[in-house]
C-alpha cells in the first residue's frame, strides 16, 4: 500500500494540472486525506479507480461533513493619535473563515486488498454554491449514499442519475444534518385548505369593499 | 356436448387493448416480505418487472444527529438498535472506530470474548436469514422455527452475559463491559458442539431440495464486476465469487490467529447466497472451537481507559468490521470535545440494496420477493 504522499505524487505525475492537496490527520489513526478541487474530481477519481497499482475499485463509504464559519480573534497592536498624543492601543480583530460543505469518500481496493484512501471535495460555501461532481458514474455504490448526503446536508451532486431525497419525505425543505439546523416546532404542520380559503375570502372581501366605495364616490 | 363439438371449441379471441401499458404496483410499505416498512415501486409488464425503485425512510430517526449530540459512550447502546439482529457486531464496529480514533489497546481476554460473541452473532444471523428466505418461498414455518430454536440458545447465552437478549450493549472502548459469568465458556462450548448437527439438519432439509433449487438457481443473478463497483459486501459479494472478507483483509481483532476459509459462490444467484451462508456458519463453528480453547485470564478492559470525561484528540478515523450482513463501518471526526463532531454509520443493508433493481429486472414478481429476501437486510439499519 502506498502512503498518502506517494498517491499524491502519482496523481501529480498522471494529471499534472489537477489541484490536489494532502490534509494531515492529527489523530493516531493516521488516515490522511486528499482534498481535490471539484472541477478535477471526476478525473482524479477515474485515475484512482483505473490505475493498475492503486486499483481502488471499491468505494466503501461516502458521506458529508458540514463545517461552519469559523470566527478567530487576533490581537493587533496599533499606534493611534489620541488627544494629540501617540499611544499604542491593543485591538482585537475578528477574522471569519467561511464555512463549507464537504463530501468524503473512503476508497478500498478489492483486487489489491488495500485501503483506505480518503478523497474529499469541498464546496465554495454553505448557501448558494453547494454543487459538487457526483461520483456515481465512477462508483455505483455512491448512488444511495450521495442521495443521502443531498438529503441530509444539501450538497447538490452534478451528474447523479437520480438525485432525490432518500430518508426524509419529498416535501421536506431543510437539511437536518447541518450543524445549524433548528427543528421545526411541529413536524406535521401543513397549511390547511381552510387557511388558504380564509385568506382568499379576506382578499375577495377587501376587493368587494373597494368596489363598493368606488361606486359610492361616483354616485 | 359431443366430442366433435368440444374439439371445435375455441376460446373467444380478445384483442389486447392495453398492449404495452405498464402496471405500477407499490409493494409495501406493509408487505409481509419486506421485514419492516420498506416500499418497492414496481412497474410490471404482465408478470415481468420492468422497473423497480426502492423507497426508504419510514424508520428514519436520524441516528447520526442524535449521536452527534450525545457523548461517545452514550451512542454505544444506540448502535444495538441499528441492526437489531446483530447488536454484538454493531458494538464491536463502533468500538473499533473509537479505538482507532483515540489509540486504545484492547486486552487479550477481551479480544477473545469479542470474537466469540461476534461469531455466535454471525451464526444466529445467517440461520435466521435462511429461515426468513424459506418463509418467503412458501416453506411456512419449519425452516424458520428450526433456525429460531438455535437462535434462542444463543440469545439465552447473550442474556446471561450482558443482561439483554438482543440489545446487548456489551462492548466498551478498550474491551468489554462485564466479566464472563461462571461456567459461561462451558455453556458456549456445549452450544457450539450442537451447532454442526443443526447445520447438517438444515442442509438435509434444504440443500438438495428440488423446490428450493427450482426457485433459486439462476434467479436474482449478480455479476461480480457490478457487485464490486456497487460496493456490495458480505455473503452477497462472496456469492458472486469475489474473495473479500474483511476478517482476512484487515485482520482486525485477533482474526489472524484462527484458521478459517472464505466460502465463495460461483453464479451469484440466490442459491449461492444461501450456500455461502451455510458454509460461513460451518467456518464460524470452527473459529469458535479454536477461540474457546484458549481464552486467557486477565482484565477485560484496559484499566487506564477513562469512562467518564472521554475526550479523544482532534482527528478522524474510519473503522470497519465484517458484519454478518456485510461491511459495517463507523466514521468519526473528533474536535476534541466530549461528543463527536461527525458520526457516520456505513450501513451494509442500505448499500447492498443498490443493485436490487439490476437483479430484479426481467424477472417475475414472485422472484422479486425472493431476491429481496436473499439480500438479508434489517430496516433499522437501512433507515437509521
From TrEMBL, chain A:
Reaction catalysed?
Answer: a quinone + NADH + 5 H(+)(in) = a quinol + NAD(+) + 4 H(+)(out)
One of this protein's Pfam families, by short name? Answer: Complex1_30kDa
Per the database record, which ranges form the NADH:ubiquinone oxidoreductase 30kDa subunit domain? Answer: 35-182
What SUPFAM superfamilies is this protein classified in?
Answer: Nqo5-like (SSF143243)
Q: Which Gene3D superfamilies match?
A: NADH:ubiquinone oxidoreductase, 30kDa subunit (3.30.460.80)
Q: What is its EC number?
A: 7.1.1.-
Keywords linked to the UniProt accession: NAD, Quinone, Translocase, Transport
Record carries keyword Membrane: no
Domain of life (superkingdom):
Bacteria
Which InterPro entries does this one have?
NADH_quin_OxRdtase_su_C/D-like, NADH_UbQ_OxRdtase_30kDa_su, NADH_UbQ_OxRdtase_CS
Q: Is Membrane there in the keyword field?
A: no
Q: What does this protein do?
A: NDH-1 shuttles electrons from NADH, via FMN and iron-sulfur (Fe-S) centers, to quinones in the respiratory chain.
Q: Which PANTHER family match?
A: NADH DEHYDROGENASE [UBIQUINONE] IRON-SULFUR PROTEIN 3, MITOCHONDRIAL (PTHR10884:SF14), NADH DEHYDROGENASE UBIQUINONE IRON-SULFUR PROTEIN 3 (PTHR10884)
Give the family this protein belongs to, as stated in its UniProt record: Belongs to the complex I 30 kDa subunit family.
- Name of the protein: NADH-quinone oxidoreductase
From TrEMBL, chain B:
Q: Which keywords does this chain's UniProt record carry?
A: Cell membrane, Membrane, NAD, Quinone, Translocase, Transport, Ubiquinone
The places in or outside the cell where this protein is found are: Cell membrane
Highest rank taxon of the organism? Bacteria
Per UniProt, what is the membrane topology?
Peripheral membrane protein
Claim: Translocase is one of the keywords in the record = yes
Q: Where's it mainly located?
A: membrane
Sequence ranges assigned to domain NADH-quinone oxidoreductase subunit D in this UniProt record:
141-306
Quote the Pfam families the UniProt record gives.
Complex1_49kDa
- Reactions accelerated catalytically: a quinone + NADH + 5 H(+)(in) = a quinol + NAD(+) + 4 H(+)(out)
Give the Enzyme Commission number. Answer: 7.1.1.-
Similarity section: Belongs to the complex I 49 kDa subunit family.
Q: What does this protein do?
A: NDH-1 shuttles electrons from NADH, via FMN and iron-sulfur (Fe-S) centers, to quinones in the respiratory chain. The immediate electron acceptor for the enzyme in this species is believed to be ubiquinone. Couples the redox reaction to proton translocation (for every two electrons transferred, four hydrogen ions are translocated across the cytoplasmic membrane), and thus conserves the redox energy in a proton gradient.
Alphabetized PANTHER family for the sequence: NADH DEHYDROGENASE [UBIQUINONE] IRON-SULFUR PROTEIN 2, MITOCHONDRIAL, NADH-UBIQUINONE OXIDOREDUCTASE 49 KDA SUBUNIT
Subunit description: NDH-1 is composed of 14 different subunits. Subunits NuoB, C, D, E, F, and G constitute the peripheral sector of the complex.
In Swiss-Prot or TrEMBL terms, this protein is called NADH-quinone oxidoreductase subunit D
Source species of the chain: Acidicapsa dinghuensis
Amino acid at each position: 500500500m502506498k502512503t498518502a504522499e506517494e498517491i499524491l505524487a502519482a496523481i501529480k505525475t498522471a494529471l499534472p494540472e489537477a489541484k490536489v492537496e494532502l490534509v494531515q490527520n492529527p489523530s493516531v489513526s493516521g488516515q490522511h486525506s486528499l482534498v481535490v478541487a471539484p472541477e478535477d474530481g471526476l478525473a482524479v477519481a477515474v485515475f484512482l479507480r483505473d490505475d493498475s497499482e492503486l486499483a481502488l475499485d471499491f468505494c466503501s463509504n461516502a458521506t458529508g461533513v458540514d463545517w461552519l464559519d469559523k470566527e478567530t480573534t487576533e490581537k493587533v497592536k496599533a499606534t493611534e493619535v489620541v488627544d494629540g498624543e501617540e499611544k499604542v492601543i491593543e485591538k482585537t480583530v475578528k477574522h471569519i473563515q467561511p464555512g463549507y460543505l464537504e463530501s468524503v469518500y473512503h476508497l478500498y481496493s478489492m483486487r489489491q486488498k488495500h485501503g483506505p484512501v480518503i478523497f474529499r471535495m469541498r464546496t465554495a460555501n454553505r448557501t448558494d454554491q453547494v454543487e459538487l461532481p457526483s461520483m456515481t458514474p465512477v462508483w455505483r455504490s455512491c448512488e444511495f449514499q450521495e442521495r443521502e448526503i443531498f438529503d441530509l446536508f444539501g450538497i447538490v451532486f452534478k451528474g447523479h442519475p437520480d438525485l432525490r431525497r432518500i430518508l426524509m419525505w419529498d416535501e421536506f425543505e431543510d437539511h437536518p444534518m447541518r450543524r445549524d439546523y433548528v427543528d421545526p416546532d411541529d413536524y406535521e404542520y401543513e397549511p390547511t385548505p381552510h387557511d388558504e380559503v380564509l385568506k382568499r375570502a379576506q382578499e375577495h372581501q377587501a376587493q368587494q369593499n373597494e368596489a363598493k366605495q368606488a361606486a359610492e364616490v361616483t354616485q | 356436448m359431443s366430442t366433435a363439438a368440444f374439439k371445435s371449441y375455441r376460446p373467444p379471441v380478445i384483442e389486447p387493448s392495453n398492449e404495452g401499458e405498464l402496471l405500477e404496483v407499490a409493494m409495501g410499505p406493509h408487505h409481509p416480505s419486506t421485514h419492516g416498512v420498506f416500499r418497492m415501486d414496481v412497474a410490471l409488464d404482465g408478470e415481468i418487472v420492468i422497473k423497480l425503485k426502492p423507497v426508504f425512510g419510514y424508520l428514519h430517526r436520524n441516528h447520526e444527529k442524535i449521536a452527534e449530540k450525545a457523548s461517545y459512550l452514550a451512542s454505544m447502546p444506540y448502535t444495538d438498535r441499528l441492526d437489531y439482529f446483530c447488536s454484538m457486531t454493531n458494538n464491536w464496529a463502533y468500538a473499533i472506530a473509537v479505538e482507532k480514533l483515540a489509540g486504545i489497546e484492547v486486552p487479550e481476554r477481551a479480544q477473545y470474548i469479542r470474537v466469540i460473541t461476534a461469531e455466535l452473532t454471525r451464526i444466529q444471523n445467517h440461520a435466521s436469514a435462511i429461515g426468513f428466505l424459506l418463509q418467503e418461498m412458501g416453506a411456512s414455518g419449519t425452516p424458520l422455527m428450526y433456525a429460531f430454536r438455535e437462535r434462542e440458545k444463543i440469545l439465552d447465552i447473550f442474556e446471561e452475559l450482558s443482561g439483554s437478549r438482543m440489545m446487548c450493549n456489551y462492548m466498551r472502548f478498550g474491551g468489554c463491559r462485564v466479566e464472563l459469568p461462571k461456567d459461561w465458556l462451558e455453556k458456549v462450548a456445549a452450544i457450539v458442539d450442537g451447532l454442526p448437527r443443526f447445520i447438517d439438519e438444515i442442509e438435509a432439509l434444504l440443500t438438495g431440495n428440488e423446490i428450493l433449487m427450482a426457485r433459486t438457481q439462476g434467479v436474482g443473478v449478480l455479476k461480480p464486476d457490478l457487485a464490486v463497483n456497487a460496493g456490495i459486501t458480505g455473503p452477497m459479494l462472496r456469492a458472486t465469487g469475489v474473495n473479500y472478507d474483511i476478517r482476512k483483509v484487515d485482520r482486525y481483532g485477533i482474526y489472524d490467529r484462527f484458521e478459517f476459509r472464505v466460502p465463495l459462490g460461483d453464479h451469484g444467484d440466490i442459491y449461492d447466497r444461501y450456500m455461502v451462508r451455510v458454509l460461513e456458519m460451518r467456518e464460524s463453528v470452527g473459529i469458535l472451537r479454536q477461540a474457546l480453547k484458549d481464552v486467557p485470564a486477565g482484565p477485560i478492559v484496559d484499566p487506564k481507559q477513562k469512562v467518564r470525561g472521554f475526550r479523544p484528540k482532534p482527528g478522524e478515523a474510519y473503522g470497519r468490521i465484517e458484519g454478518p450482513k456485510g461491511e459495517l463501518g463507523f466514521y468519526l471526526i473528533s474536535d476534541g470535545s466530549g461528543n463527536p463532531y461527525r458520526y457516520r454509520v456505513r450501513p451494509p443493508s442500505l448499500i447492498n440494496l443498490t443493485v436490487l433493481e439490476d437483479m430484479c429486472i426481467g424477472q417475475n414478481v414472485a422472484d422479486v420477493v425472493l431476491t429481496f429476501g436473499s439480500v438479508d437486510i434489517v430496516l433499522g439499519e437501512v433507515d437509521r
